Amino acid sequence: MASRARAVAANVSGGMFVDATCIDCGTCYTHAPATFRPVGDTSAVHAQPATAAENAAAHRALIACPTGSIGSDDAAAARAAANAFPLPVDVDGVVLPDVRWCGWTSPDSFGAWSWLIERPGGNILVDSPRAAPTLAAGLAARGGVSRIVLSHRDDVADHAYWHERFAAPRLAHAAEGLVFAEEQVAGDQPITLDRDLVLIPVPGHTAGSLCLLYRDEILFTGDHLWWSPPRGRLQASRDYCWHDWDAQLASLRRLLDLPVRWVLPGHGAPWRAPRVGDFRDELTRALDELSG
What we know:
Blueprint: E1 16-18, H1 27-31, E2 36-39, E3 42-45, H2 52-64, E4 70-72, H3 75-82, E5 87-91, E6 94-101, E7 115-117, E8 124-126, H4 133-141, E9 147-149, H5 159-166, E10 170-173, E11 183-185, E12 191-194, E13 197-201, E14 210-214, E15 218-222, E16 226-228, E17 233-235, H6 245-253, E18 262-265, E19 271-272, H7 278-290
Parallel strand pairs: 8-9, 9-10, 10-11, 15-18
Antiparallel strand pairs: 1-4, 2-3, 5-6, 6-7, 7-8, 12-13, 13-14, 14-15, 16-17, 18-19
């Protein structure tokens, strides 16, 4: 629970605050930029919520915060936010009908985001949120989880809790060394899991990083690729590449011909392509800068 006695100095006064336990994972200011922003190596409240929508988003960020570093005087809003997850995915006012953000991020994954795909063939949990009974009830109400796809070893968090709660097998690339995963894939070629699901090995960030392509247009990217609002482009990180940067660039190039309309990452901001072909253009632009 956040402590007002430890609130960071950069907070504006009011009912919400961030305290010194913040690890600056980016969850709060990515989800609720009207209220939170990065300040140095922490996050802070730069404006108290001014509307009902801002208040709801700020309290969802409170629940999603992996370290419990956000405090609020509005207990009722926090309770409502806890029950809101898994939350519909809304990018630029466009809502995905069958994908939800799980919130409830884990410090073990440095606040990485996880996603629920709702589909007739069985719901898929992409990466692992924090073990939270409230979220478990929300997932159960939406049909539970039939399989857990782990994009790479960094974002497995409380996988055991979710595996046991829903009896859902865990899938990972063998190169990650996640021996607990019941399903292991290998190699560097795309693997069709079902007619609407394709695994794409993308070695680079880690040796066995995976992307998951859903319905040919929604790409779950783990820590491989994300949208950077400060740069205004798609982004990957050389500084946080744990395996091979050249391999990661090669893996990014292999995505160029995909008809992607949505990028849903583990870290960084989600992105939606306004038009078919925009993903190729944006990824080409990113590669030009990342390869320099």
